[in-house]
Amino acid sequence: MPYLNDRAAVSDAFDLIRKFGDDAGFEAAARADRSRDLGNHIHFCRWRQIERLVVLMSVGRAVGTIH
After folding, report:
1. Total domain count for the chain?
2. 63 occurs within a structural domain
3. What spatial distance separates the first Cα and last Cα of the chain, rounded to whole Å?
4. C-alpha distances in angstroms, 27 versus 18, 42, 46, 61?
């Protein structure tokens, strides 16, 4: 499960899915790589988590424990 430290990550994941469709995960990965190349480890980690969230949001069923 991805770590989410704020609601903005969910909003960013939703925006990527809306703008890029099936390629949203690739876009998040590209943003993470760009941040890493710039030496920004905080944004690198954030975009990697958003990449994982995009994958979870694109699955057509619940993942994890359901109560």
Report:
1. 1
2. no
3. 17
4. 12, 17, 13, 23
